[in-house]
C-alpha cells in the first residue's frame, strides 16, 4: 500500500509540474519549446495522459480495497454467527448480555457496510478520507469482536 501511495503522489507531483510548466510559459519560451520539438499541444496531451493514468490507478486501488474489505466482512459474518451459536447455549443474564453484544457487533458490521456504499462517489483526496473512515470502522468492529469473544469465554 505504501508503494501505491508513493506512486499516486509521484503522479500527482508530475501532473502539477506539467501544469506549472504549461501556465508559466511565455511567448519567448514558447518559441524555444517549439524549436526543441515540444509544443503546447504535446504538453497538454501528456498532462491528459498523466491524469488518466492517475485516475485509472485510483480506481484500481479502490477496487482492491473493496475486495479486501468485503472478504474481511465475510469472515466477521462467520465469526459473529459462531458467537451467536455459542450464545444460544447460555442461560439467564449471560445470554441476555451475549445477545446485547451480538447486536452491537451487527451494528458495527452494518456501519462498515454503510461506509462501503459511499465508495463509488470517492476519488482523489476524498478517497484517502474515505479509506481512513472504513479502516477506522473495521478496527472498531475488530475491537468489539475481540471484547465479545473475551466476554463469552468468561466462566
Task: Describe the structure concisely for a colleague.
This protein is mostly helical and about 160 residues long. About 90% of the residues lie in helices and about 0% in strands.
CA-based shape: rod-shaped
Order of helices and strands: HHHHH
Count of discrete structural domains? 1
Distinct helical segment count: 5
Q: Helix/strand/pairing class, anyone?
A: mainly alpha
Q: From the alpha-carbon coordinates, what is the Rg to the nearest angstrom?
A: 25 Å
Characterize the biggest β-sheet.
none
Work out the number of β strands.
0
Features:
155 residues, mainly alpha
What does it look like?
By secondary structure, this protein is an all-alpha fold. The chain has one domain. 88% of the residues lie in helices and 0% in strands. The protein has helices at residues 2-24, 27-36, 40-88, 92-117, 125-152. Helix 1 (2-24) runs antiparallel to helix 3 (40-88), helix 3 runs antiparallel to helix 4 (92-117) and helix 3 runs parallel beside helix 5 (125-152). The longest helix is centred in the middle third of the chain and has 49 residues, at 40-88. The two termini are 42 Å apart.
Amino acid at each position: 500500500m505504501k508503494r501505491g501511495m508513493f506512486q499516486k503522489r509521484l503522479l500527482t507531483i508530475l501532473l502539477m509540474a506539467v501544469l506549472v510548466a504549461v501556465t508559466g510559459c511565455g511567448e519567448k519560451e514558447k518559441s524555444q519549446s517549439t524549436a526543441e520539438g515540444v509544443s503546447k499541444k504535446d504538453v497538454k496531451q501528456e498532462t491528459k495522459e498523466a491524469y488518466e493514468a492517475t485516475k485509472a490507478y485510483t480506481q484500481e486501488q479502490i477496487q482492491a480495497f473493496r475486495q479486501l474489505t468485503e472478504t474481511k466482512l465475510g469472515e466477521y459474518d462467520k465469526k459473529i454467527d459462531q458467537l451467536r451459536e455459542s450464545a444460544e447455549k447460555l442461560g439467564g443474564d449471560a445470554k441476555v448480555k451475549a445477545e446485547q453484544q451480538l447486536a452491537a457487533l451487527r451494528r458495527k458490521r452494518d456501519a462498515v457496510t454503510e461506509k462501503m456504499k459511499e465508495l463509488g462517489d470517492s476519488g482523489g483526496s476524498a478517497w484517502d478520507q474515505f479509506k481512513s473512515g472504513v479502516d477506522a470502522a473495521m478496527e472498531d468492529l475488530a475491537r468489539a469482536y475481540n471484547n465479545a469473544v473475551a466476554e463469552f469465554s468468561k466462566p
